[in-house]
Amino acid sequence: MLAAIPRIRLASDQRGASVPEFALILIPLCLILFGGLEIGFQIYVRAVTLGALERATRLTTLQTVDSSAAETEIEDQIKRLIPSAKVETTKGSFYQYSNINAMERLTRDANSNGTLDSGDCWEDVDDNGTRNIVTTGKADSIGGADDIVRYNTVVTYNRILPLYRFIGIGDTATVTATTMVRRQPYELQSTPTVRCKA
Question: Which residue of 45, 125, 136, 187 lies most exposed, with the fewest beta carbons within 10 A?
């Protein structure tokens, strides 16, 4: 009879029951907390990148701008936040907004079939000598007066927390930002070169 009393006490004893419950909750709680920190940092990196791009595009509207200095400033602002980040900025200029991601316009279509045949001419917006869909504009150029300039910046950096090991994502994060601006019309805009197919 005396031996049965400790068993009853042990079965009804609730002390320490919260420890395994807390252990079960701790792992998902940490994943949510660290995931939130990682996503918040990525949003902050994107905001810094967009701010740097906006400053560069404001500088680009000026007549005497040095575009390489603007790109260096983009990289410097991002590297103040993440010194080990890889920053790639590309730029291109377009004659007008309708040229972006569009086939270069035919200026002469002898047989009116809409394709570039021998003797037909087109506006070579990206100045590469072939009629194509213009995706980047004049590569590595901010163009001239009244041209549209598009900057694209890709920032790659190592994640700040080792969360990627537990949820199967890569150890690097990538942030991409794009912006466009029309340069000031301080002089007449130069028109695209017209080329003809022989």
Answer: 187
